Amino acid sequence: MPSYKIVKGVKIAEDALVRIWINNKIVAELVSNPELLEELGIGYAYSEGYINTLGEIKEVATAGHDVKIKLVGDVATRAKKVEECGIGEFVKNKSPRRIYDFKQLTTLATEFAKLTIWNVDPHLALHTSALYLDEEWAVIHDTSRHSSVIKLIGMYLKRGKEAESKIAFTTGRVSSDMVYRLATIGVGAVVSLRGPLYSGVEAACKLGIQLVTNIRNKGFTELCP
Question: What 3-state DSSP class applies to 223?
Fold first, then answer.
């Protein structure tokens, strides 16, 4: 469950600036709910191309709002990134070019809606993202839709079992950084209960990832491929 504080009897979701370290160097600062920070660190290292398998990680330690990852051997670290809304860079794509049945995706979206924070705890102002993995759900609630996706990737990797079918769902607007990161674990479709950003549409169409979003009052709309 996400961490929160009580203010005048009201539950308020916590947000924090989390620093991710790789081999003693800060590589990113991300806004996140300060829970599941190990998943955040692993997901970030993988989706940024620092690692290809969990076996390349020697140690993951969390202290306060810091996630410190030690990798086996030296690795070239890049300039520190601060979370930005929308724009991402392509690292690697493992997404299969497959098309899911549109009706299946919209039916699953209805199921996903029941798993969102609005139904779990409507007092908390959080995004929800999820992976549908061979008929199993992995769900994350977070203050940032970006960080929720990164945590999902870390959660999937820690699962240690490859899924044949991977579909991502989110309550947030789909942006390119989310699409690119999800592509690194082979997600074939992304479904949002809200509308996308143009960068997200561009990224999905470029990678051949099926993108289904709820465009205002028109209901679910398939935009890519």
Answer: strand
